[in-house]
Amino acid sequence: MDQMGKSFVSTGMKRILARVLWMGCSLALLVRAANQVAPPDTPAGKMFSIWLEAFNSGDQKRMSDLVAKYYLPENANRLEGMIDFRDRTGGFNLISIEKSEPRRIEAIIREREGLSLIHI
User: Fold this and answer.
1) Are 109 and 118 a contacting pair, CB within 8 Å?
2) Of 87, 84, 34, 83, the residue nearest 62 (C-alpha)
3) What b-and-e string marks burial along 11-27, b requiring 16 or more CB atoms within 10 Å of the CB?
4) Domain coordinates of the chain in residue numbers?
5) Which of 12, 13, 37, 68 has a Cα at 20 to 30 A from 111?
6) DSSP label of 102
7) Whole-angstrom distance, CA of residue 46 vs CA of residue 99
8) Cα dist. 92→14, 55, 86, 104 in Å?
9) Per-position pLDDT tens, the chain of length 120
10) Which residues on neighbouring strands pair with residue 100, listed in sequence order?
C-alpha cells in the first residue's frame, strides 16, 4: 500500500473511532438520565419531591395549591414566576443528590427543555 493509502486509512479509522466514542458518551448520558435518582426519605427530600412533582406537572392549579399550602403569605406572588419558569424549562429531572440532611437537601437537576444543569 502506498503512503497515500496509509494516510487515508489512518484518517478514516480516526473518524470511526471518534464516532464510536461520541456514541458511547451519548449512550452513557441517556442511560444516566433514564435511571433518575429519587429524593431521600427525609423531611427535606419529601418537600422537594412535592415541589418537583407540582412544578413538573405544569398544572397551574396544582402549583397554586402548593404555593397556598407551603409558601409564606409574602411569597404568594411567586406563582406567576413559577409558572413562567416551568413553561421555559419544561420541568426538571433530578440528576443527583449532592447532600442530604433531615432539613436540607442539595441536588443537581437538569432542564427538560434544555441542557442546563442547576445546583439547588
Assistant:
1) yes
2) 83
3) eeeeeeeeeeeeeeeee
4) 1-35, 37-119
5) 68
6) T
7) 14
8) 37, 8, 9, 19
9) 555 555 555 666 667 766 766 666 555 565 555 567 899 999 999 999 999 999 999 999 999 999 999 988 888 788 889 899 999 999 999 999 999 999 999 999 999 988 888 898
10) 105
Q: Indicate the residue type of 104.
A: R
Q: What are 89's three cell numbers?
A: 424549562
Beta-bridge partners for 105 = 100
Under 8 Å between Cβ of 45 and 105: yes
In terms of Cβ atoms closer than 10 Å to its own Cβ (0-12, 13-18, 19+), residue 2 is: exposed
- The Cβ of residue 63 has, within 10 Å, a number of other Cβ atoms equal to 19
DSSP strand pairing (104-111 vs 92-101): antiparallel
Amino acid at 115: L
pTM above 0.85, yes or no: no
